[in-house]
Every structure is written in C-alpha cells, then in structure tokens.
C-alpha cells in the first residue's frame, strides 16, 4: 500500500513521456537554439548507445537554465523520443509551480530523490541530474566558470552501485544570460530565524540579487528573460571509477574520492572550454 501511495504522488512515477507535448515544445526550443542562443555543441559521441548513463550537469543561468533546455533539445534531436531518460527535478517545483511541474513531467521530469533515480536505472533508463541545484543556478558571476556540485554525493553512490558511467555536461555562456551580483541567503536565513516565514512555506536555498530582464535588478530567485547570449555546450568523456558495486558504494572514503574525481574532471573540461571559446 505504501508503494502505491508514493507512486500516485506528482513526480513520483516513471510514467512514459508524452510525445505530443514534446513535439509541441521542440519547434520553440529549436528557434531558441538556432536563433536566440545560437548554440554550438560538441562531444555527443561520448554517450554510449548500448547502455544507460548518468548525465551530470553544471547548472547555469538562474531559473531559466537555458543550457539545460538546449541540452534537452539536443538529446531529442539525436536520440528521438524512444531512448528512455528521466531528469531529476527539485521537489519544491511541484509545490510552488505545479502546472509547470506537470508539463516537465510530460517531458520526463521526476522528483529529485534517490528512489526515483534507482527506479529509472532498474528500467535501463538514463538519468539526468544537476547536483548543485539552486546554489549552482544562482552562484555569483565571478564563479560562473566554477563547477559547483554542492557536495551532493548521492549521484556518485548510485553510479557506483548500479555500475553506470557518469557523463558530465558543461556549458559556456549561460551564466552570462543574467549577472548575479551576490547571494544573500545567509542574511535571509537570519531573518527567518527571527520569524520571517518562507514564501510558499518553501526554503529557497538561495537569495540572489542580479541584473537581468525584465526587472533590471532582480531580488530573490525570480524568473527572468535570459539575455540572447551565444551558448557553447559540451558532453564530456565518461568518468570511469576503479571499482563498482554495492560494497564500493558503501565505502564513504571511496565515494568521496570518486566525487572529487568527477569535480576535478569537470573543472578541467570547463577550463579547457573557457580557454577554447575565449581564444576563438
């Protein structure tokens, strides 16, 4: 009974993607891809065609996250609607923006929880995860080329236990589609401790002040219209660990080592991408 109850909650079931919804979104994403963000992409040959993968991305560009949506567009253009993939999305989205969350679920979004990732991997599906979450999305502008996975190691444990390669996703330009001046979340936390309630009863995890459209100056994690900045996206070579399996996944020191390996390889790839783009 408990399993049935969980599966009926929004975002807690691996329901098939809705081809009609996806086909309706592809032309819009295509226009943004080709004419607004003028995307250049590379590295898609690194995704094996004969096994599931864990796609691990670095989030950029605030709530609009243009690099993420352009990566999703590229996935469907290359693999069609047949290849199974699920994206882990913050549970707060279903609470704050339920209609938007329902649309995302039609495209393949599920609640960001290990149980959902495990269920997807057991069905031989790939999993898309952005471990850094809101802190990654709204990291200040000077950190725009810094890989920020937030110390979230759950994805590493799952990749080790279920023996799936981690394929990193990085991008250049998306964090220029708004200019994040600073994150004032510690100050907001103090106000909350003094009695200020969270909006929608949801801890925002960040409280940025940024320059962006249409606000001019945006205060808080507000939606915005991205600047039309050219994006460069890249699929990196898979991260392969020395050992896999349940026993390895329960070794905390080994998991920490593997997490650091992912961060290091992603940062090296990011540094190379920055150097290549800025020296074109």
Summarize the structure.
This protein is α/β, with parallel strands linked by helices. The protein has helices at 2-7, 19-36, 66-79, 92-96, 98-107, 114-122, 133-137, 154-161, 185-193, 246-249, 252-278, and strands at residues 40-42, 54-57, 85-89, 109-111, 126-129, 166-172, 179-183, 208-212, 216-219, 232-235.
Keywords, please?
280 residues, alpha/beta, 7-stranded mixed sheet, 3-stranded antiparallel sheet, globular, disordered N terminus
Descriptive account of the structure:
There is one protein chain. The chain is 41% helix and 16% strand. The chain is of the alpha/beta class and 280 residues long. A hairpin with a 3-residue loop joins strand 8 and strand 9. Helix 2 packs across helix 3 (66-79). The N and C termini lie far apart (59 Å).
End-to-end distance: 59 Å
Overall form:
globular
Could you estimate the helical fraction of the residues in percent?
A: 40-55%
What count of helical segments does DSSP give? 11
Largest sheet: 7 strands, mixed
Please report which band the strand proportion falls in: under 5%, 5-15%, 15-25%, 25-35%, 35-45% or over 45%.
15-25%
How many strands appear in the DSSP assignment? 10
Low-confidence stretches: 1-6
Strands side by side in the biggest sheet = 1-10-6-2-5-3-4
Compute the gyration radius: what is it? Answer: 19 Å
How confident is the prediction overall: mean pLDDT? 94
| Element string (H = helix, E = strand) | HHEEHEHHEHEHHEEHEEEHH
